Amino acid sequence: MNAVVAVSGLTRRFGDFVAVDSLSLNVAQGRIFGFLGPNGSGKSTTIRMLCGLLQPSSGSGHVLGLDIMTRYEEIKRRIGYMSQKFSLYDDLTVEENIDFFSGLYGVARARRGARKTWALEMADLGGMRNALTGSLAAGWKQRLALGCAVLHEPDILFLDEPTSGVDPLARRLFWDLIAHMAHAGTTVFVTTHYMDEAEYCDELALIYRGKLIAAGEPGELKRSALSQHIMEVRVARPYDALDAVERSGLVQEAALFGDTLHLTVADAAQARAQLPPWFEHNGFGDVGVEEVMPTMEDVFVGLIEAEDRE
Amino acid sequence: MTSFSWRRLRALTHKEFLHIRRDPRSLMMAFLMPLILLVLFGYAITMDIDNLNLVVIDHDHSATSRDYVQRYTASGYFTVIAASDDEREARRRLDAGEADIALIIPRHFARDLERGRTVPLQALADGSDANTASIGLGYAEGITNRFNADRLGDVATPPVENRLRVWYNPELKSRWFIIPGLIAVIMTVITALLTSLTVSREWEAGTMEQLISTPVQPLELMLGKMLPYFLIGIFDMLLVVAMAVWVFGVPLNGSLPLLLASGSLFLFGGLGFGIFISTVAKSQLVASQAAMLTTFIPAILLSGFIYAINNMPLPLQVITHLVQARYFVAILKAVFLKAVPPYYLWQEMLFLLLFAIVVFTVAVRKFHKKIR
Questions:
Q1: What ipTM was reported for this prediction?
Q2: Chain centroid offset of residue B287 CA
Q3: Helix (H) or strand (E) holding B281
């Protein structure tokens, strides 16, 4: 495999707190790698170590074949990084921000004009090049930050929660841009806690309390990461049924899902046999029970709960 | 390893200039504050005591007593605000703070003098302002000595007569020694305060994290922060020198190049210190307080700018040796007023140079660690 990021046993401690706990993963070239986890699970710490901003406590890692322990300065020249906080200068204009980062990354003189035009077009800011960056709406700021992070055409792009605080339409646009870059050969390493965004990724890793708890392609994760099954039940009074079925002991979990119920069970065949009679008996009439593919959120919540039970 | 890049330095410097241009607070600090301080210290705060209010209680009402009092007003230091023969008037005026000095001339003043007796003449001073009181009493004593000499002159020549001459500042104008030292105070604000703020602002805003993810080098980052403020510092220095010479009439007797050279050394050290503060204190609030406490206040109180270091208690005198501004104030006063040859100032220059080198090296080291 042509691994652009290869990490093994990577650990970072802050005093007694283990922020990242012997993490191992590989990312292939040209892939969109989604790094999922709740807040405080170690996503940003990992990304900072990969970008050479933070020294790992132990373990090893290579980005673009360069050791993150020693050759971080070379890594910095070939990566793009967007930190979690919006990190351009609000008191500089759009164009001044682009020129500044173009200078820092040492974009060749001949390429500078073309890259600026490209960034302005990509961020859809052609008409606002003289606007102060602080006056832009969140979505535009985010796209400008992305533009500035890739002015030097990096081989890999690290994005730390790029879409937090951005409206859904702008988020969709942002992911289109990311897909575009990946298609052109740039590897994208992106963290998020939006489960719907996981669907845009080619590959996912789930991190919880500093530990990797699952990894794989989205479809594969949904099919096989959970040991439980999700049963969708169509029932007349779903709200009343929810309470009753939760107390019945037949299911591990019950949740409202639109006008249906999603019930988590250990054995699908058994559930199919037991559930309809139970609903019938409890006065909910004839119900339809069907196994459905879990959503990413189901998988994620299920895995975290399993982890917590251990 | 990535090596030093002029292009990155240029981008950083340009960006810093843009920040300053768009931030009214920095602009004020950089350009308005020197002017305000100049006007404040140039006009409002003066250590010259030449307008003392005098109450005269004359019990004698003779030509001799009037001659004696007239010498006070003629000196130019005193204004008679009240004359009375009721001593309660003297107490009232001193109590009210209207008078600085009260003279009480006894009855038979002229007659006793004629008879060759020593006449006791009381001068009361308002000691709640000790400095004014002691200077006022000094003037009074001088006037009395002169009065005595003139009277004795008829009889005998005095054994010793002082021929006093004040060098460098013949009229002892306090403005002449305050304004040159003020340059050091102003530059302290520009250097430590402004630079420490600009670096800690980047940590607070999160832009520093973005910066250090690029191939930028700590040295470039530091120089990029320092250069704009260095230029502003030199500009401010020239501005204050020009105002000092043309508005306040302070003579610039020494060489301007020497002034600029020592000013550059001082700026370099001060800017390095500002960066150092910001590597330790990452919030703007802490940084500005630290800068105030470690540079601005010592520059005013412990540099010899106004208060003579020789008069301080010994422990404080020892501390002043660590105050960078002390050496620059000494140079400024020497160059402005004394026009001494540069080799007289080699110790001060050497300290400024060493301070700059040490602080800059430590700051680059510290900065590097934080990046990692």
A1: 0.83
A2: 25
A3: none
